[in-house]
Amino acid sequence: MDLRSQFVSTASALVDSDPRVAVVLAEISADQFAGASATHPDRVLNVGIREQLMVSMAGGLALAGLRPIAHSFGAFVIERAWEQVKLDLDHQDVGAILVGAYGSYDWAEGGRTHQSPGDVALIDTLSDWVVHVPGHPAELDAQLRSAAADDTRVYLRIGGRSNPEAFPTHHDAWSVLRQGSAGTVVAVGPTLRNTLPAVSGLDVTVLYAPTVRPFDADTLRSTLRTPRIVMVEPYLAGTSAAHVARALADLDHRQLGLGVTDPDPHRYGTLADHDRLHGLDPRSLRQLISGFLIP
Amino acid sequence: MKSRTTSGYGELGRLMGLLTGDEKHGPSATSTLDVIWVLYDRILSITPATVDDPARDRFVLSKGHGPIAYYAVLAAKGFLGEDQLAGLASYDSRLGHHPDRLLVPGVEFSSGSLGHGLPASVGMAHGLLVRGIGARVICLIGDAEFDEGSNSEAVVYAGGIGLANLTAVVIDNQSSSHGWSGGIGRRFAVEGWLVHEIDGRDHEAIAAAFLSTAPDAPTAVVARVEPKG
């Protein structure tokens, strides 16, 4: 099962089991939710191609005591409806789960209009958001279930090819995959798939982060041997740079942010083409990481 | 907080004076005054004691600009103490030029940027239905605020699903630069809303409009007041 199908499956199960949960859609994925909608027409809502309304309604549903899940492509749920995210959720101090699909360039053939490499950077201009970047359907399932059970503001970012192995955690902590002495590589969500072969044989610590906000500074610090950090993120390169700098503020350190470079390269192609374009394929990653950590 | 008292319509001018330091207020400051007064005096099931009751009616002031009349009514009805009216929008005041639900008891929605209240009210009204709560959501917008396209999204959708526990009230002081040919009520009527066009200063007409709703359609009340000067 891919990440997006897992989202539909888990969200549909949650609508079934939790009378607080309501899914709000703006046409995208409405077909996949047809079954849940037939069973729960009052809590699986398709408002048509109206993303502003979708996000504002999520705010209103939360104000009425429900737990809304609003979903579209990341470009539309976060960027098109940005003021609604900012004012109708954050400013009202109510919670919701926003779910953005297509990651940064999952549909590279579709071009810039359907890509959202800036979504996490935008969320970072607000406070108190949880940002999940699952790299495996089992992680997404656990994250969505735990998000549905509370009232926080959550962005669940669905994108990229799944990793072969899942690392679900109960406290949004990062997994320590390897320990080494030349520095630390943090792979976020689906970037682990290309990062693991890239660091094969290198003497580095490898951490895996399916959740990036809150930023797990504790695990970064407690496993730190050499204060050199490489963040590999599936959205804009350097998005977490301020968090790394804050976590290591009392240490002389160096950091490198890898991720999406030019957000609008005016190129179509495949996901793999764009991995190479941004230096996120295994070969480019190995060159960039070893060049920085092991000069 | 000092003890709260309630006072009548005749006190609103004095209360606005406490807020602004002026004795007189122009039409644009008071365009919403009569509608909001009638809502809190005769229509809405909400009191200072029930601001957290899930079953309360919700009033959403989407047109957050010029909230003096709103604050005055909240003070007259005891949601705010008169001692809180001085120092409007100063650092220590709860009352700013746009209301904040985290700061003012009884304020359901923080507004200011136009075009957010009605779409959020659609979610609120729907959420109350899902929870089996028979409360109303009444959202106040301005005729120029209706320029914002997000309102159109809400009008079409709420009309389409027949969201009967939602009422929009439009304060029409003809302040929209390009206007609404044939009247703003047509935009609601064509989407299946029950529409009342009334004099926004006539308390009996205001109350009658809010009490006349449909079982299967949202209600729009277009309240005409003097043109913005």
Give a written overview of the molecule.
The complex is a heterodimer of chains A (295) and B (229). Chain A has 295 residues and is α/β, with parallel strands linked by helices. Chain A folds into two domains: 3-157, Rossmann fold (3-Layer(aba) Sandwich); 175-293, Rossmann fold (3-Layer(aba) Sandwich), CATH 3.40.50. Chain A is built from twelve helices and twelve strands. In chain A, strand 8 (184-188), helix 8 (192-198) and strand 9 (205-209) form a beta-alpha-beta unit. The longest helix of chain A is centred in the N-terminal third of the chain and has 15 residues, at 3-17. The termini of chain A are far apart. By secondary structure, chain B is of the alpha/beta class. Chain B has a domain at 27-65 and 106-224: Thiamin diphosphate (ThDP)-binding fold, Pyr/PP domains (Rossmann fold). In chain B, helix 1 (12-20) crosses helix 4 (68-76) and helix 3 (33-43) crosses helix 8. Chain B starts with 11 loop residues before the first helix and ends in a 5-residue tail after the last strand.
Fold topology:
The complex is a heterodimer of chains A (295) and B (229).
Chain A lengths: L2 H15 L3 E5 L8 H6 L4 E3 L4 H13 L3 E7 H7 L1 H10 L4 E6 L17 H5 L5 E4 L4 H12 L4 E5 L17 E4 L5 E5 L3 H7 L6 E5 L1 E3 L3 H6 L5 E9 L4 H7 L6 E7 L10 H7 L4 H12 L2
Parallel strand pairs in A: 1-2, 1-3, 3-4, 4-6, 5-6, 8-9, 8-11, 11-12
Antiparallel strand pairs in A: 5-10, 7-9
Helix pairs in contact in A: 1-7, 3-5, 8-12
Chain B lengths: L11 H9 L6 H4 L2 H11 L14 E4 L6 H9 L40 H14 L6 E6 L6 H13 L4 E7 L12 H5 L4 E6 L3 H9 L7 E6 L5
Parallel strand pairs in B: 1-2, 2-3, 3-5, 4-5
Helix pairs in contact in B: 1-4, 3-4, 3-8
Organism (chain B): Microlunatus endophyticus
GO molecular function, one term (chain B): magnesium ion binding
Protein name (chain B): Transketolase
Keywords:
heterodimer, A: 295 residues, alpha/beta, Rossmann fold, 2 domains, seven-stranded mixed sheet, five-stranded mixed sheet, B: 229 residues, five-stranded parallel sheet, globular, Transketolase (chain B), magnesium ion binding (chain B)
